[in-house]
Amino acid sequence: SVKASQVEDCKLTGFTGLTGLRCIGCNPFAQTGRSKLQNKRASLNQQIIKQMRMRAGAENLLKATSNNKVKEMVLLELSYVNSNLQLLMGQLEGLNSSVEVYQSSQETANIPLIALGLKETKEVDFSTLFKDFILEHYSEDGNSYEDEIADLMDLRQACRTPSRNEAGVELLAKYFSHLPLMESRFFSPNRQTGIFFTWYDSFTGVPVCQQNLSLEKASILFNMAALYSQIATRSDRQTITGLEEAISSFQIAAGILNHLKETFTHTPSYDMSPAMLSMLIRMMLAQAQECLFEKTALPGIRNQFYSLMKMAQEAAKVSEIYDQVHQSMIQTPIKDNVPFFWSTMSQVKTNHYRSMAHYFVASALLDHQLGPSDDEDQQEKTLSQVYDRLPEGRSPLDILKKKDERERIGKAHIRRAILGHEEALRIYSLCHHLNKLEVLQDILKASHQRSLNKYSENENEEEFADYTEAPDIISKTEHKAEMEFPATTKVKVTDFFQRLGPLSVFSAKQRWTAPRTIHLRPEDRDLGFTLKGETPVQVVSLDPLCQAAADGLKEGDYIVAVSDTDCKWMSVSEVMRLLKDVNEEGIDIQVVSMMDSNPPMPTKSATFCGNLPKTYSMICLAFDDDDKNPKSRKVTKKSSFISWGLKNKLKSASTLSLPTADHSGALPWNKPCPTFPSSSSYNNDSALY
């Protein structure tokens, strides 16, 4: 179900597949802010690939020609193409900087957060190649699987525009769960399928094309993380519920990106390189930490010494994490492709939250003198934990007891707060994309003015200028943002192509003969063989002198049909019921024989990046245990047809799950938050900031 507030964001479309479940995606033609942004991204990607093809052709011509006039014309053309590419990539950077469309409609007083845009892909037509493969490999009529192929294509098409809610995440998870099934059915290790999957880099727009499913899997995971980041940014951060949703979504996005980094270590797309993913993980966790700070401050901050010191360290923690994000953004090669808006925003937040930390410490020292009823030892302990070092010749107790020292250090903190806010405003003015965010400018100016007011309240014109430098504040938090995985990690899906038979036998990497018809005629109510297994059943203990053996039945054959009844999914008992009442005229069965598989192809696949072919090693890919050949098991010869089956030890291959990790403990931020009493009196010790 979709909430009414989400209908404006995405008009829904979908399809009903074989499973009977409706898969919901956004209408790509809906005129909403987010859909317009994705349409612009798709258009820019097409223009970028056109210019890159022109550049590749010009460079090839430059190498091949020896005519100086032709070289001059080609060089001129190259300069135009490179200029166009720079303009197009600048426009793509602008799209990545358009954070306002992802914010909640209720946002009024919160600093905007950054969401990842969805990767774009080309449509893929499975129809012809899958039909041919079914006919050639499975010896079945591919046209009879048109509905299943259409459902798979519709599911992939819906994944290009998922709705920005849990239904959209579930849609991506279902398609991701179908990919291993599709890989086992149609992607043989001994041959190329001829199906190309093309995905565009979300930062550069450069296309990457591969014939295997590793790029498809990685890109779907990236889009799942991007969708969670968009869910987080649209949450209402004026409520505890909205903040908790944002925190959880950012942590899940970080967890998915981390799994992507550890599993697909050599993905050729730059936006999924280990360095870029590490930076994105830090950014997601930094935004989660920022939301944790807002959650702590939302009920109000008690105007008391201990509460102010605690919030100072919390703000310092947010500043520290954003500083780490900014440092990772300015490292080579990330700095060449990450949007300037992102690095500027992280720098602004670093200075903003550091200044807030100094403001809180200044307020604690200037507004709360040590009184007779205060716990001197406790305040001394608190102050010593806030500072890494103190100005020379001063101790925490001196600062607390001596009014002059307390005011001097407090003013030093407020001066650092003012300077930090001024630096944040200066950096803000350097990025024209940031200048569009008026709410950010309002927050920065209001924070700066608050610090100026605090300084003027404690300024004494008769005092000499004091240039004491405020010490750094140690960052500390009670609720640290941690990577998280989706609560529903296991997604059950029904194999679209289950009619082909159990995946343990009827897969792309197995080879067997075409179905053979065997005529069975009982002799003294004995057919001359026994059966084992469950689905499909296998012929064992075959009497070489029986009529079935003479007709071509072999030890180890799989029975796929009895008369006109398909029995690939039938157990031994079910097949037994079909055979036990065979009359003297007999009955026809169809069997297949397993063949030795050819040696697998080298683990390399052709990758086309920006229309320039290169070789990409696939050794890094992880293979599921379910894909391994089932080990043969010895079966003792049985003399009677009645003693047929063995207990099946094979698990169903129609249930897959997303990668997960054990996070059984409670979330670090899920601790009970302190209660902050409210009061309308500003001068009261319990007044709220």
From TrEMBL:
One Pfam family from the record: PDZ
Residue ranges constituting the REM-1 domain according to the UniProt record: 27-101
GO annotation (BP), single: signal transduction
Family: Belongs to the RHPN family.
The protein's name: Rhophilin, Rho GTPase binding protein 2
Keyword Glycoprotein: no
Keyword annotations of the record: Coiled coil
Alphabetical list of SMART domains matching this protein: BRO1, Hr1, PDZ
Domain BRO1, first and last residues per copy: 112-461
Gene3D superfamilies: 2.30.42.10, alix/aip1 like domains (1.25.40.280), HR1 repeat (1.10.287.160)
Domain PDZ, residue spans: 517-585
InterPro entries attached to this UniProt entry: BRO1_dom, BRO1_sf, HR1_rho-bd, HR1_rpt_sf, PDZ, PDZ_sf, RHPN1_2
